[in-house]
Specification:
Length: 436
């Protein structure tokens, strides 16, 4: 992978010209008192370096004569490592991660100016790390004040995401291999969960078994807090309490994915706990499934990303009109967003190192983003008839028979040269497969 990390750095440096890019590793996060969460590296930092340590800074300076890639890392400290684990150290940072030069992190203030003084711009993402923001701004302002004397130095700061996140949006073959692995592990977990779910079982039992499978196969754990939502809980988009005992007649909505080497999967399935859909559950399930299938058919090079949501939304609104949940002309209902009480989210998102991965979805109101091979996204339409939900103005009160039904179906989809590939197709979703 080091060759690929180098290629990514080279690609970024070719785009920033005489600028200097600065990336800070993620800080440790405190759970409580002196206990920390398991470490999770900043995705941009990891994408460019592969280094999975806190208290590190990566600098890319393509204009520097000798040092194009510089790392500032924690120095080796045997006493500290006994308590907190091994660190790479300065010497190994060059050998293991390909840095042209490496320094102890406590020398950052002294060494950083030499990589900024001949740069015309600093590329850095402000806003996420307040203490380090101050460090970058202090160096920038100091150089800006002395700019008239030298005629060199950065005169602007630009967000790195404007360049880097477009690169991350298109996955390499090695990234797709990791994403398929994350998908395959989650597929197994979902299939086991479907067989395990029965009246009397608690939601957390399903969660525990799925997350055991994630770890069993070398995953880092869940890609996000697992959602195991039975009954009316299925109408809560981000329900994570997972403490209800399932009952006959319930639907169970499971939204869970695996993180593998920091790459993520994201799958949702909804099925009857007792083995058979009620008539109303089946009607809405088939509607959501039809919306998802038609939306996936829009995933192909040259299509606008927005066509995925637009297609799913129209199918859902037409179905809600047919079943008396909405009334009116479909185009007007969509324009006025009368469907929002029952379908309040978009139909998907980018997927990669982050579950809601980076990358824009359009370039202004009249300039949609066009799909291209190598992009990975989710397709996840749903319907949620929340008990007691207030209909939109001039819309009917929903019949009691629909109340408490929440359905979402989600797959991870790769844009290919001639269409798309569903990475998570190993989890069944046809009605006959969801019943037993």
């Amino acid at each position: 992978m080091q060759a690929e990390y180098r290629q990514r750095r080279d690609a970024l440096m070719s785009k920033i010209g005489n600028g200097t890019a600065i990336f800070r590793s993620a800080p440790m996060a405190v759970m409580h008192n002196d206990v920390e969460y398991a470490y999770r590296q900043d995705s941009d930092f990891f994408y460019l370096t592969g280094l999975n340590e806190a208290e590190a800074v990566a600098v890319l300076a393509p204009h520097h004569e000798e040092h194009k890639f510089i790392l500032f890392v924690q120095p080796k400290d045997i006493t500290k490592e006994v308590w907190s684990g091994y660190v790479t150290g300065v010497d190994a940072a060059k050998e293991k991660y390909g840095a042209d030069e490496a320094y102890p992190i406590n020398e950052l203030d002294d060494k950083l100016p030499q990589y900024l003084i001949n740069a015309d711009k600093i590329y850095y993402r402000l806003g996420r790390d307040k203490p380090f923001n101050e460090t970058v701004l202090t160096h920038y302002q100091r150089l800006l004040r002395t700019y008239p004397k030298r005629g060199t130095g950065p005169t602007a700061i630009q967000d790195t995401c404007t360049i880097l996140h477009g690169m991350r949006l298109v996955k390499s073959d090695s990234e797709l291999t990791l994403m398929q692995k994350a998908a395959d592990i989650a597929v197994e977990a979902h299939n086991v969960a479907r067989e395990m779910a029965k009246p009397g079982v608690y939601e957390y039992e399903i969660q525990a078994e799925m997350e055991r499978i994630f770890r069993k196969h070398g995953g880092l754990g869940p890609a996000y807090p697992s959602i195991v939502a039975s009954g009316a809980n299925s109408c809560i988009l981000h329900y994570i309490e997972n403490n209800r005992q399932m009952q006959d007649g319930d639907l169970l909505l499971i939204d869970a994915g695996c993180s593998y080497d920091y790459y993520n999967s994201d799958i949702t399935r909804t099925f009857p706990v007792g083995g058979k859909f009620t008539d109303e559950q089946k009607i809405l399930y088939e509607l959501v499934l039809s919306a998802q299938k038609q939306a996936i058919a829009q995933v192909k090079p040259g299509n606008a990303y927005s066509s995925i949501h637009d297609t799913a939304l129209r199918v859902l609104v037409e179905g809600m009109v047919d079943n008396g949940i909405l009334k009116g002309e479909v185009d007007k209902l969509i324009e006025e967003e009368k469907y929002k009480p029952y379908y309040m989210h978009r139909t998907g998102h980018w997927l990669g190192l982050d579950v809601h991965d980076v990358g824009v979805y359009q370039h202004g109101d009249d300039n949609p983003l066009i799909l291209q091979p190598g992009q990975v996204l989710t397709v996840e339409p749903g319907i949620y008839i929340v008990p007691g939900a207030k209909p939109a103005e001039e819309q009917p009160q929903v019949a009691q028979k629909w109340m408490g039904i929440g359905i979402r179906i989600e797959d991870d989809v790769l844009v290919t040269e001639d269409g798309c590939e569903v990475l998570t197709k190993g989890v069944p979703k046809e009605v006959e497969d969801m019943e037993r």
